[in-house]
Amino acid sequence: MRARFAVASAAIAMAGVFFSAPTASAVTLPSTNTAHHCVRHTTGVCGWTHHQRPKDKYETAKCVDATLSYSRHSQGTCSHHHGVRYWFK
Protein backbone atom coordinates (compact mmCIF):
# COMPACT_ATOMS: atom_id res chain seq x y z
CA MET A 1 0.00 0.00 0.00
CA ARG A 2 2.78 2.44 0.90
CA ALA A 3 4.61 1.60 -2.31
CA ARG A 4 1.55 2.49 -4.39
CA PHE A 5 1.16 5.73 -2.50
CA ALA A 6 4.82 6.62 -3.07
CA VAL A 7 4.57 5.86 -6.79
CA ALA A 8 1.36 7.87 -7.14
CA SER A 9 2.76 10.91 -5.33
CA ALA A 10 5.96 10.76 -7.41
CA ALA A 11 3.85 10.69 -10.60
CA ILE A 12 1.84 13.69 -9.43
CA ALA A 13 5.02 15.61 -8.61
CA MET A 14 6.48 14.86 -12.05
CA ALA A 15 3.25 15.95 -13.76
CA GLY A 16 3.40 19.22 -11.85
CA VAL A 17 6.91 19.87 -13.16
CA PHE A 18 5.97 19.22 -16.79
CA PHE A 19 2.61 21.02 -16.80
CA SER A 20 3.37 23.99 -14.57
CA ALA A 21 2.59 27.48 -15.84
CA PRO A 22 5.49 29.70 -16.97
CA THR A 23 6.76 32.12 -14.37
CA ALA A 24 6.04 35.84 -14.54
CA SER A 25 9.75 36.63 -14.78
CA ALA A 26 9.80 35.23 -18.32
CA VAL A 27 7.43 38.01 -19.40
CA THR A 28 8.68 40.83 -17.19
CA LEU A 29 11.27 43.14 -18.73
CA PRO A 30 14.17 44.49 -16.68
CA SER A 31 13.81 48.01 -15.30
CA THR A 32 17.00 49.35 -16.92
CA ASN A 33 18.75 48.41 -20.13
CA THR A 34 22.40 48.24 -19.09
CA ALA A 35 22.94 44.73 -20.50
CA HIS A 36 22.78 45.88 -24.15
CA HIS A 37 20.76 42.95 -25.42
CA CYS A 38 17.17 42.40 -26.50
CA VAL A 39 14.51 39.95 -25.44
CA ARG A 40 13.15 37.90 -28.34
CA HIS A 41 9.91 39.42 -29.63
CA THR A 42 7.54 38.73 -32.50
CA THR A 43 7.73 42.22 -34.04
CA GLY A 44 10.54 44.74 -34.29
CA VAL A 45 14.29 44.14 -34.25
CA CYS A 46 16.96 44.54 -31.63
CA GLY A 47 18.22 48.11 -31.57
CA TRP A 48 21.66 47.12 -30.30
CA THR A 49 22.29 44.86 -33.30
CA HIS A 50 21.31 47.70 -35.66
CA HIS A 51 23.64 50.22 -33.95
CA GLN A 52 20.73 52.10 -32.35
CA ARG A 53 21.02 53.54 -28.87
CA PRO A 54 18.19 54.43 -26.48
CA LYS A 55 17.71 58.05 -25.48
CA ASP A 56 18.10 57.16 -21.79
CA LYS A 57 18.54 54.03 -19.70
CA TYR A 58 14.79 53.52 -19.15
CA GLU A 59 13.69 53.47 -22.79
CA THR A 60 12.53 49.98 -23.75
CA ALA A 61 11.55 50.46 -27.40
CA LYS A 62 11.37 52.91 -30.28
CA CYS A 63 8.10 52.82 -32.20
CA VAL A 64 7.71 52.89 -35.99
CA ASP A 65 6.53 56.51 -35.84
CA ALA A 66 9.72 57.45 -33.88
CA THR A 67 8.00 57.85 -30.50
CA LEU A 68 9.69 56.32 -27.47
CA SER A 69 8.28 53.64 -25.20
CA TYR A 70 9.03 53.08 -21.53
CA SER A 71 6.69 50.12 -21.04
CA ARG A 72 7.60 47.48 -18.48
CA HIS A 73 6.08 44.61 -20.48
CA SER A 74 6.46 43.76 -24.14
CA GLN A 75 2.77 43.03 -24.73
CA GLY A 76 1.04 46.00 -26.34
CA THR A 77 4.18 48.14 -26.63
CA CYS A 78 3.74 50.78 -29.38
CA SER A 79 0.29 49.38 -30.23
CA HIS A 80 -1.06 52.86 -31.02
CA HIS A 81 2.12 53.90 -32.86
CA HIS A 82 2.18 51.34 -35.70
CA GLY A 83 4.26 48.77 -33.77
CA VAL A 84 7.83 48.47 -32.52
CA ARG A 85 10.75 49.36 -34.74
CA TYR A 86 13.62 48.75 -32.29
CA TRP A 87 13.73 46.96 -28.93
CA PHE A 88 16.27 47.93 -26.29
CA LYS A 89 15.49 45.21 -23.73
Order of neighbouring strands in the sheet with most strands:
1-4-2-3
Shape: elongated
Q: Strand content of the residues, in percent? A: 5-15%
Q: What is the overall number of helices? A: 1
Average pLDDT confidence is 74
What does the oligomeric state look like here? single chain
**Helix percentage:** 10-25%
Say how many strands there are.
4
Structural class: alpha+beta
Distance between the termini: 53 Å
Order of helices and strands: HEEEE
Unreliable parts: 21-27
Largest sheet: 4 strands, mixed
Radius of gyration: 20 Å
InterPro entries: DUF3761 (IPR022236)
Signal peptide: 1-26
Organism: Streptomyces naganishii JCM 4654
Pfam family, one: DUF3761
Write up what this structure looks like:
The chain has a domain at 27-87. It has one helix spanning 2-18; strands at 45-46, 61-63, 68-69, 84-87. The radius of gyration is 20 Å and the shape is elongated. The N and C termini lie far apart (53 Å). A 4-stranded mixed sheet has the order 1-4-2-3, with no helix packed on it. It has 89 residues and is α+β, with helices and mostly antiparallel strands. Helix content is 19%, strand content 12%. A hairpin with a 4-residue loop joins strand 2 (61-63) and strand 3. Residues 21-27 have low confidence and may be disordered. InterPro entries: DUF3761. Residues 1-26 form the signal peptide.
